[in-house]
Amino acid sequence: MAKRDAIFPADRHALYDVHQYSAAIRHGDLLFVSGQVGSREDGSPEPVFEDQVRRAFANLRAVLAAADASFDDVIDVTSFHTDPQTQFDTVLAVRAEEIGEPPYPAWTAVGVTWLAGFDFELKVIARLPPKAAGSSPAA
Fold it and tell me: Residue 60 is inside which H or E element, if any?
C-alpha cells in the first residue's frame, strides 16, 4: 500500500498538531482535504460567523495552493453547519464570492450539533492538475 502523501499549507494553524491530522492527503491525481474551519493561526475560532466562514475558505485556499491546486479543481464539497437555518444566507453570500463561475462543484450541506467550538466547516475532494498530481509533497 502506498504511503500517505500529506499536504500542509506554509503557515499551518495549530489544529493540525493538536488534533493530529493532515490538512490534505494526495493520492494520485486526487486531493482529499480535511475539514477546514475558520480558525486563526493559534487554532481559536473567529468569533464573528461571517469572518469564520471567510477564514474557512481562506484556510481551504491555502491547503489547495500547497498542492498546486485552486478551487477550480474542486469536484466535491461537503459543508457542515451548526445552525443552518440562520447561517445559510451568510454562507451562500460568501460562497458566491469564493467559488467562481459555473460549472459548480457538487455540494452537500449538513446540519450538525458539534464542530469542536466552530460553527462552519468545509471538506473537499479535488482532482489535481497534471503537474500537481506528480509533484513532491509539501510538508
Answer: helix 49-66
